[in-house]
Amino acid sequence: MLLVADIIFYEYIPSYHCKYLYEFGENICKQLALELTTLEDRNNPLLNRREVRAIMRNAAGSLTRIDAAQQIAEKLNVDKNKVIAISMTGQRGTMDLQSTFYIYNNEDDMKKQLPRYRMLRGISKADRKKLLDEEKAEKLKAKQAAAASKSGPGRRR
Predict the structure, then answer these.
(1) Which CATH code fits 32-133?
(2) Confidence of residue 7 (pLDDT cuts 50, 70, 90)
(3) Are 54 and 72 in contact (CB under 8 A)?
(4) CB 40 within 8 A of CB 53
(5) What's the burial of 86, exposed, middle or buried (CB within 10 Å: 0-12/13-18/19+)?
(6) Is residue 29 scored above 60 in pLDDT?
(7) Which of 85, 82, 49, 80 is nearest to 64 (CA)?
């Protein structure tokens, strides 16, 4: 039940108390820090990878795929380049994410098995843009070289 006295109290908070409110908010955020719980860790020898299912508590909306893969890599002591986030799904009413990760033994198997967009998701946006621009430049040079060789010395009639 909200009383008139409560409304007046909140309206007239002196400015020197804001410091304490900030510290209170900071302490609450530390309590809501990310917690990683591994549900399942299976080794798949047929595909040469580990399949890890985990719950990330208090992470919905604040954690990217790259950060999640990095935290899994730190927890399991593996190279972060070999960890791919497959799915990260949240549920209504909670801040938890149920996640699935694949940890490959080597990058060649990863390139053979996964579509290209899955690997590009694991790269930061700046690096992804640089990589795509380089590939476009190579493709353009190859196209220009093919056009130059095709239109070289032509036949005369």
Answers:
(1) 3.30.70.3370
(2) very low
(3) yes
(4) yes
(5) middle
(6) no
(7) 85
> Where are the chain's structural domains?
32-133
What is the rounded distance in angstroms from the CA atom of residue 35 to the CA atom of residue 50?
Answer: 21
What kind and span of H or E run contains 8?
A: helix 4-11
Residue 14 DSSP code: -
| Residue position matching structure tokens 């497959």 | 86
User: d(Cα 77, Cα 71) in Å, to the nearest integer?
Assistant: 10
Rg (CA), the chain: 26
In the predicted model, what is the mean pLDDT of residues 15-26?
A: 54
Structural element, H or E, at residue 99: strand 97-104
Residue 130 identity? K
Instruction: Convert the pLDDT of each residue in 44-100 to its tens digit.
Output: 999 999 999 999 888 888 888 898 999 999 999 999 889 999 999 988 888 888 999
Tell me the C-alpha distance between 36 and 9, whole Å: 40
Amino acid at 45: P
pTM above 0.85, yes or no: no
**Which pLDDT score, from 0 to 100, does residue 84 have?**
92
Number of other CB atoms surrounding residue 104 within 10 Å = 22
